[in-house]
Amino acid sequence: MLPETTKLNAFPVFMRVEDALVVIVGNGGEALAKARLLSQSSAALKIVADDPDAPLAAWIAAHGAKHVAEAYAPHHLEGAVLVFAASGDAALDKRISSDARAKNIPVNAVDRPELCDFFTPAIVNRAPVCVAVGTEGAGPVLSQLIRAKIDRMLAPSLGGLAVLAASFRDAAERLLPKGSARRRFWNDFFEGAPARALEIGHLAEAHEAAAELLARRTAAQGHIALVGAGPGAEDLLTLRAQRLLMQADVIVHDALVPEAVVAMGRRDAERLPVGKRKGCHSKSQAEINELLVSLGREGKRVVRLKSGDPLVFGRAGEEMQALRDADISYEVVPGVTAAFAAAADFELPLTLRGVASSMVFTTGHDLKGGTLPDWGKLAISGATVAVYMGRSVAAEVASRLIEAGLSPDTAVAVVENASLGDRRLFHGTIADLPALEGRDELTGPVMTLIGDAVAGANFGKSEPLAAHDRLVAAKQGADA
Ligand code: SAH
């Protein structure tokens, strides 16, 4: 025998309610909450409320629910398949509950488990797919937490996918032998091209992809998702990125993507680090391109995880070109780029009315030539400049911009490890920027933001850039 705690005292069932009468009795927020829950179904709602409060009255009007503006009487329950006692009045709820039971109608009384024949679950609704969470009264907070987790895992398009699946069921049964072939078809259907097409709202394409899967009945097609992992914090990953990570056979990731983010992938996914930290290239770009192509040819579902946004200094262009040339399907999932994370850490407006109306993403490496690149002129005309990979060229960037006419007083904000717990913030002017190069203790990635809009940042948590310079100078002075 199982220990008592592993047995459910409330067993979940899905009850047919299409056009069936469901009665809710109550005037206030509890009745409204049940009305909202039930309105996710196609049941016919009847709300018995002699004196509905304003929100309930407004909801009834907006949703066209049947409203009985009378004091509760037992005959109101006639013909109902479910009854909700939500009056907020213990004695009345008790009467409603016993009237319902006398008529053999299952009843739920809000917050009074002893009067309930059933409990309402927290639900994740992807009609016709539904996940219901119950805790037998251990607590609505727990149900809601679980609900929210599941909600994040399931694509909004899942309901549509289930409807599409139903339309393919007969054909799949006719054409595919029972067993592994059929299972593989459904696996590819729910996780492969049809699912992906629906996720971006392309129903016709999804239909086509499903038909193709059915016709081909060959090995699964490979697919590469170029996914932005965001600046480092796990919870800055997009829901789509998380879902793809959960489905991946292989995760190919850069060194800048923290372990905690890679670990969000499917547990048995293969993980291939491809390095690329400054100064230690573990794989060349050409080798990475080849790797992606060959994984695609093997039919793998691959997540190519890149820090920040994959299309910003991520060499995604080359990878996409290689995949296109090899005719391997791929998609791109945007991520939070480092400049945005750094701006958020600094509470810094990247555009500011009347001050900065454009923005430049640059590496600064192109400032080394003889002429100022166009973005340099933009900076001088007030654009906010985000410098990626710029620590080692900080002095160069500063002197070239000042030389070209940018005021040495222009504000600068620097963030190491943006979005992460160990981030460090520095501020100063462009004249202080060369000090950055001397800061060998900054071992994490560094984002530099330059421009007049930077002056609008919150400097409460940052250290002055120049302080370091002065300290070093003072120390050298003392040593001399
Ligand atoms: N695709 C990435 C950029 C890759 S280039 C993106 O969109 O963010 C790598 C550079 O990004 C680093 O040298 C640094 O300048 C910046 N960077 C990446 N993550 C960062 C972080 N957490 N904090 C500060 N800068 C970061």
Automatic annotation (TrEMBL):
A Pfam family annotated for this UniProt entry: CysG_dimeriser
Pathway noted in the entry: Porphyrin-containing compound metabolism; siroheme biosynthesis; sirohydrochlorin from precorrin-2: step 1/1; Porphyrin-containing compound metabolism; siroheme biosynthesis; precorrin-2 from uroporphyrinogen III: step 1/1
Catalytic residues, chain numbering: D254 (proton acceptor), K276 (proton donor)
Domain Sirohaem synthase dimerisation, residue spans: 157-214
Keyword Nucleotide-binding recorded: no
MF annotations from Gene Ontology: NAD binding; precorrin-2 dehydrogenase activity; sirohydrochlorin ferrochelatase activity; uroporphyrin-III C-methyltransferase activity
GO biological process: one example: cobalamin biosynthetic process
Gene3D superfamilies: Cobalt-precorrin-4 Transmethylase, Domain 1 (3.40.1010.10), Methyltransferase, Cobalt-precorrin-4 Transmethylase, Domain 2 (3.30.950.10), NAD(P)-binding Rossmann-like Domain (3.40.50.720), Sirohaem synthase, dimerisation domain (1.10.8.210), Siroheme synthase, domain 2 (3.30.160.110)
Alphabetical UniProt keywords: Cobalamin biosynthesis, Lyase, Methyltransferase, Multifunctional enzyme, NAD, Oxidoreductase, Porphyrin biosynthesis, S-adenosyl-L-methionine, Transferase
Domain of life: Bacteria
Domain Tetrapyrrole methylase: start-end pairs: 224-433
Reactions listed under catalytic activity: precorrin-2 + NAD(+) = sirohydrochlorin + NADH + 2 H(+)
InterPro entries, alphabetized: 4pyrrol_Mease, 4pyrrol_Methylase_sf, 4pyrrole_Mease_sub1, 4pyrrole_Mease_sub2, CobA/CysG_C, NAD(P)-bd_dom_sf, Siro_Cobalamin_biosynth, Sirohaem_synt_dimer_dom_sf
Family assignment from sequence similarity: Belongs to the precorrin methyltransferase family.
Stated name of the protein: Uroporphyrin-III C-methyltransferase / precorrin-2 dehydrogenase / sirohydrochlorin ferrochelatase
Organism: Neomesorhizobium albiziae
